[in-house]
Specification:
Strand order of the largest sheet: 6-5-4-7-8
Distance between the termini: 45 Å
Shape: globular
Helix content: under 10%
Radius of gyration: 16 Å
Largest sheet: 5 strands, antiparallel
Number of strands: 8
Strand content: 35-45%
């Protein structure tokens, strides 16, 4: 598989990369990234909702062996973020502005728009949300 990401692919992923939108189904289930069919109930016709840009780290780990296409970011923290919405929607994200040897589990975080990746010197630069710790747990 090629490392090249073409602009149409970025456009298709814009709801996830640029807007933090999730799918809310009539039964109340919320999924990020958005999907067309509720995996639990089989419902269709979701409403796109905007997720809050704040949350809490549920669990995190440090990715020390970095794939070649992520060399600019390594080593990096990958975390499960629980959003501050009514259903506590969970998503995976990358922490930014952090130290490699600190455990950020339980920290409050906020979404920051950052460079995610690029496709070499002549390729497209991909931006999206990373999560920055703001408050240590009590």
């Amino acid at each position: 598989m090629s490392n090249v990401v073409f602009p149409p692919r970025i456009k298709r992923r814009s709801e996830v990369l640029y807007h933090l939108r999730a799918a809310r189904f009539p039964g109340g289930n919320i999924y990020y990234p958005p999907c067309e069919i509720d995996p639990e109930t089989g419902e269709t016709n979701p409403e796109l909702i905007k997720l809050p840009k704040t949350g809490k780290v549920v669990v995190e780990t440090v990715q020390r062996i970095v794939p070649s296409w992520m060399q600019l970011n390594g080593p990096y923290h990958v975390a499960v973020i629980e959003c501050d919405d009514e259903k506590h929607t969970r998503m995976m994200g990358i922490l930014t502005g952090v130290e490699a040897d600190v455990d950020y589990t339980g920290w409050k975080v906020k979404a920051c728009f950052r460079r995610i990746n690029s496709n070499g010197d002549a390729g497209a630069i991909i931006y999206g949300f990373k999560w920055q710790p703001t408050e240590k747990p009590a």
